[in-house]
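Reviewer 2 asked us to include a model.

Predict the structure of this chain.
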Amino acid sequence: MTREEQNTKSKEAIITAAVAEFGRHGYEGSSLNTALNEAGISKGKIYHYFESKDQVYLACVSACFDQLMERLQGEKDKEVRTLPGYFQIRWEFFEEYPSFAQIFFEAVERPPEHLRAEIQQRKACFDEFNLSVFRAQLAGLKLRDGISEEDAIEYFQVFQEIFHRLMITKLKDAPAQNVLELHEKELRKNLDILLYGIAKEETV
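Predicted model (C-alpha coordinates):
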Protein backbone atom coordinates (compact mmCIF):
# COMPACT_ATOMS: atom_id res chain seq x y z
CA MET A 1 0.00 0.00 0.00
CA THR A 2 1.39 3.38 -1.02
CA ARG A 3 1.69 6.28 1.46
CA GLU A 4 -1.13 8.10 -0.35
CA GLU A 5 -3.39 5.05 -0.06
CA GLN A 6 -2.51 4.72 3.63
CA ASN A 7 -3.30 8.39 4.23
CA THR A 8 -6.65 8.03 2.47
CA LYS A 9 -7.48 4.93 4.51
CA SER A 10 -6.55 6.67 7.77
CA LYS A 11 -8.67 9.73 6.99
CA GLU A 12 -11.61 7.54 6.05
CA ALA A 13 -11.30 5.64 9.35
CA ILE A 14 -11.33 8.91 11.29
CA ILE A 15 -14.37 10.20 9.41
CA THR A 16 -16.24 6.91 9.86
CA ALA A 17 -15.70 6.96 13.62
CA ALA A 18 -16.55 10.66 13.81
CA VAL A 19 -19.75 10.25 11.78
CA ALA A 20 -20.93 7.63 14.27
CA GLU A 21 -20.16 9.96 17.20
CA PHE A 22 -21.68 13.11 15.71
CA GLY A 23 -24.60 11.01 14.48
CA ARG A 24 -25.36 9.92 18.06
CA HIS A 25 -24.72 13.12 19.96
CA GLY A 26 -24.55 16.06 17.56
CA TYR A 27 -21.77 18.62 17.47
CA GLU A 28 -22.10 19.95 21.01
CA GLY A 29 -22.60 16.61 22.76
CA SER A 30 -19.81 14.70 21.05
CA SER A 31 -16.50 13.66 22.56
CA LEU A 32 -14.34 13.22 19.52
CA ASN A 33 -11.28 11.97 21.37
CA THR A 34 -13.28 9.29 23.18
CA ALA A 35 -14.99 8.12 20.02
CA LEU A 36 -11.78 7.86 18.02
CA ASN A 37 -9.86 6.23 20.86
CA GLU A 38 -12.59 3.59 21.05
CA ALA A 39 -12.02 3.01 17.34
CA GLY A 40 -8.29 2.54 18.00
CA ILE A 41 -7.29 5.85 16.45
CA SER A 42 -4.74 7.86 18.40
CA LYS A 43 -5.13 11.56 19.15
CA GLY A 44 -1.88 12.23 17.33
CA LYS A 45 -3.19 10.62 14.15
CA ILE A 46 -6.39 12.69 14.30
CA TYR A 47 -4.51 15.97 14.38
CA HIS A 48 -2.08 14.82 11.74
CA TYR A 49 -4.98 15.00 9.27
CA PHE A 50 -7.33 17.55 10.86
CA GLU A 51 -6.56 20.77 12.70
CA SER A 52 -9.51 20.65 15.08
CA LYS A 53 -12.85 19.11 16.03
CA ASP A 54 -14.45 21.70 13.74
CA GLN A 55 -12.53 20.41 10.74
CA VAL A 56 -13.48 16.81 11.51
CA TYR A 57 -17.13 17.84 11.85
CA LEU A 58 -17.05 19.69 8.53
CA ALA A 59 -15.54 16.61 6.89
CA CYS A 60 -18.47 14.59 8.25
CA VAL A 61 -20.96 17.17 6.93
CA SER A 62 -19.27 16.97 3.52
CA ALA A 63 -19.45 13.17 3.57
CA CYS A 64 -23.15 13.31 4.43
CA PHE A 65 -24.15 15.70 1.66
CA ASP A 66 -21.78 14.19 -0.92
CA GLN A 67 -23.23 10.72 -0.41
CA LEU A 68 -26.82 12.01 -0.27
CA MET A 69 -26.33 13.91 -3.53
CA GLU A 70 -24.74 10.88 -5.16
CA ARG A 71 -27.86 8.89 -4.25
CA LEU A 72 -30.30 11.56 -5.40
CA GLN A 73 -28.53 12.11 -8.70
CA GLY A 74 -28.28 8.38 -9.32
CA GLU A 75 -31.98 7.61 -8.80
CA LYS A 76 -33.50 9.13 -11.93
CA ASP A 77 -35.52 5.97 -12.55
CA LYS A 78 -37.41 6.51 -9.27
CA GLU A 79 -38.93 9.84 -10.28
CA VAL A 80 -36.72 11.82 -7.94
CA ARG A 81 -38.15 15.03 -9.40
CA THR A 82 -41.58 14.27 -7.94
CA LEU A 83 -42.12 15.07 -4.28
CA PRO A 84 -43.15 11.51 -3.27
CA GLY A 85 -40.18 10.04 -5.12
CA TYR A 86 -37.79 12.62 -3.73
CA PHE A 87 -38.81 12.07 -0.11
CA GLN A 88 -38.81 8.30 -0.54
CA ILE A 89 -35.21 8.34 -1.74
CA ARG A 90 -34.18 10.67 1.10
CA TRP A 91 -35.83 8.38 3.63
CA GLU A 92 -34.23 5.25 2.17
CA PHE A 93 -30.83 6.94 2.31
CA PHE A 94 -31.13 7.80 6.00
CA GLU A 95 -32.43 4.34 6.82
CA GLU A 96 -29.29 2.95 5.20
CA TYR A 97 -27.01 5.52 6.86
CA PRO A 98 -28.69 6.40 10.19
CA SER A 99 -25.63 8.20 11.53
CA PHE A 100 -26.01 10.77 8.77
CA ALA A 101 -29.56 11.60 9.89
CA GLN A 102 -28.49 13.68 12.90
CA ILE A 103 -25.68 15.34 10.95
CA PHE A 104 -28.11 16.24 8.15
CA PHE A 105 -30.75 17.63 10.49
CA GLU A 106 -28.22 19.64 12.47
CA ALA A 107 -26.59 21.05 9.33
CA VAL A 108 -29.93 22.05 7.84
CA GLU A 109 -31.84 23.24 10.88
CA ARG A 110 -29.43 24.21 13.66
CA PRO A 111 -25.79 24.33 12.54
CA PRO A 112 -23.15 25.44 15.03
CA GLU A 113 -23.21 29.21 14.60
CA HIS A 114 -19.46 29.62 14.08
CA LEU A 115 -19.57 26.98 11.31
CA ARG A 116 -22.74 28.20 9.59
CA ALA A 117 -21.02 29.74 6.55
CA GLU A 118 -18.76 26.73 5.95
CA ILE A 119 -21.67 24.32 6.31
CA GLN A 120 -23.68 26.40 3.85
CA GLN A 121 -20.91 25.97 1.29
CA ARG A 122 -20.87 22.21 1.81
CA LYS A 123 -24.61 21.83 1.29
CA ALA A 124 -24.93 24.30 -1.59
CA CYS A 125 -25.40 21.53 -4.18
CA PHE A 126 -28.16 20.01 -2.03
CA ASP A 127 -29.92 23.38 -1.79
CA GLU A 128 -29.73 23.76 -5.57
CA PHE A 129 -31.15 20.27 -6.00
CA ASN A 130 -34.06 21.13 -3.68
CA LEU A 131 -34.76 24.16 -5.83
CA SER A 132 -34.71 22.07 -9.00
CA VAL A 133 -37.23 19.65 -7.47
CA PHE A 134 -39.50 22.57 -6.61
CA ARG A 135 -39.16 23.95 -10.13
CA ALA A 136 -40.17 20.54 -11.48
CA GLN A 137 -43.34 20.66 -9.37
CA LEU A 138 -44.16 24.13 -10.70
CA ALA A 139 -43.78 22.90 -14.28
CA GLY A 140 -46.79 20.64 -13.75
CA LEU A 141 -48.99 23.34 -12.21
CA LYS A 142 -51.09 26.13 -13.66
CA LEU A 143 -50.09 29.18 -11.64
CA ARG A 144 -52.59 31.82 -10.60
CA ASP A 145 -52.89 34.94 -12.73
CA GLY A 146 -50.23 37.43 -11.76
CA ILE A 147 -47.94 34.80 -10.20
CA SER A 148 -44.79 34.09 -12.21
CA GLU A 149 -42.44 31.16 -11.73
CA GLU A 150 -39.87 33.51 -10.22
CA ASP A 151 -42.50 34.81 -7.77
CA ALA A 152 -43.14 31.21 -6.74
CA ILE A 153 -39.41 30.51 -6.36
CA GLU A 154 -38.96 33.59 -4.20
CA TYR A 155 -41.89 32.49 -2.04
CA PHE A 156 -40.38 29.01 -1.76
CA GLN A 157 -37.14 30.48 -0.47
CA VAL A 158 -39.05 32.52 2.12
CA PHE A 159 -40.94 29.35 3.05
CA GLN A 160 -37.66 27.52 3.69
CA GLU A 161 -36.49 30.19 6.14
CA ILE A 162 -39.80 30.13 8.03
CA PHE A 163 -39.87 26.33 8.07
CA HIS A 164 -36.36 26.09 9.49
CA ARG A 165 -37.25 28.44 12.35
CA LEU A 166 -40.43 26.50 13.03
CA MET A 167 -38.58 23.20 13.20
CA ILE A 168 -35.96 24.50 15.62
CA THR A 169 -38.77 25.27 18.08
CA LYS A 170 -41.08 22.37 17.28
CA LEU A 171 -38.45 19.64 17.48
CA LYS A 172 -36.40 21.08 20.33
CA ASP A 173 -37.57 18.47 22.84
CA ALA A 174 -38.23 15.59 20.43
CA PRO A 175 -36.31 12.33 21.02
CA ALA A 176 -33.20 12.28 18.85
CA GLN A 177 -34.22 9.04 17.14
CA ASN A 178 -37.51 10.62 16.00
CA VAL A 179 -36.24 14.01 14.88
CA LEU A 180 -35.61 13.24 11.22
CA GLU A 181 -38.88 11.31 10.81
CA LEU A 182 -40.84 14.22 12.27
CA HIS A 183 -38.86 16.71 10.19
CA GLU A 184 -39.57 14.88 6.93
CA LYS A 185 -43.26 14.45 7.80
CA GLU A 186 -43.65 18.17 8.58
CA LEU A 187 -41.74 19.16 5.44
CA ARG A 188 -43.95 17.02 3.20
CA LYS A 189 -47.12 18.44 4.78
CA ASN A 190 -46.00 22.06 4.56
CA LEU A 191 -44.77 21.75 0.98
CA ASP A 192 -48.13 20.27 0.02
CA ILE A 193 -49.86 23.28 1.61
CA LEU A 194 -47.43 25.64 -0.12
CA LEU A 195 -48.18 24.16 -3.53
CA TYR A 196 -51.88 23.40 -3.25
CA GLY A 197 -53.21 25.79 -0.61
CA ILE A 198 -55.19 25.37 2.61
CA ALA A 199 -58.78 25.76 1.40
CA LYS A 200 -60.81 23.16 -0.42
CA GLU A 201 -62.41 24.65 -3.49
CA GLU A 202 -66.18 24.70 -3.14
CA THR A 203 -68.36 23.46 -5.97
CA VAL A 204 -71.09 25.79 -7.18
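The CA atoms of residues 80 and 125 lie 15 Å apart. DSSP finds ten helices and no strands in the chain. We have added this to the supplementary material.
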